[in-house]
Design brief:
single chain; mainly alpha; 434 Repressor (Amino-terminal Domain); 3 domains; HTH cro/C1-type domain-containing protein; Cro/C1-type_HTH
Length: 197
């Protein structure tokens, strides 16, 4: 790391601290460590969860992502550091392409997952048809690709609620089953969307 990447501040004590997980390398140190070990940053960091982690895992410089998305570098860095995405729909799509993110990953890193969860909750608990346009606008998929997943989720939820009400246990059991289903709503949505492709 010192010879190949110019990281003269790195000592054996740094490496030992990282190995013991009492300290962590910063982004540049992680990239240099991966290079020294002949692996990718993703191999060292596990499953990325944030926008910053996805970029680092792929070894893409911040300037390249900002350029691909069409955002000023400083604005992009600010969004990455804050975890709050403020780009428009076209920039979100460009971000997904630049980082190779799935729809679920893209929604998680841009902070739109909560909004999607609210829309899906309304769709499964009322008339799903009334919410298809809002879901279409949010996720950027065609209406024809959303009808099946929304119909399936609505049926699953309504069947679950009515089925548990008729069993012994009544409303309390129904409420627990319903909450459990709603907690898994967003992953279930992406699973159904993926199956349709």
């Amino acid at each position: 790391m010192r010879a190949s990447y110019g990281m003269t501040h790195i000592t054996p004590d740094h490496i030992a601290a990282w190995e013991r997980e009492v300290a962590a390398p910063n982004s540049n140190e992680l990239v240099a460590l991966a290079g020294a070990l002949w692996c990718t940053p993703r191999d060292l960091m596990g499953e990325p969860r944030t926008l910053h982690e996805h970029r680092i895992a792929r070894g893409i410089p911040v300037e390249d992502i900002a350029h691909a998305v069409g955002i000023d570098v400083h604005d992009y860095v600010r969004m990455e550091e804050s975890g709050r995405w403020s780009g428009n729909r076209f920039q979100v799509e460009a971000l997904g392409r630049a980082l190779g993110l799935s729809g679920a990953e893209l929604f998680a890193v841009t902070g739109q997952e909560e909004q999607l969860a609210q829309l899906l909750t309304e769709a499964v608990s009322t008339r799903w048809q009334a919410h298809i346009k809002e879901v279409e606008t949010l996720v950027g998929l065609e209406k024809r690709d959303l009808k099946g997943p929304l119909r399936t989720m609505h049926t699953e939820y309504q069947t679950l609620i009515t089925g548990t009400l008729s069993r012994a246990g009544g409303a309390a059991s129904s409420g627990d089953a319903g909450r459990n289903y709603l907690d898994r709503l967003v992953p279930r949505f992406w699973e159904l969307v993926q199956q349709k492709k």
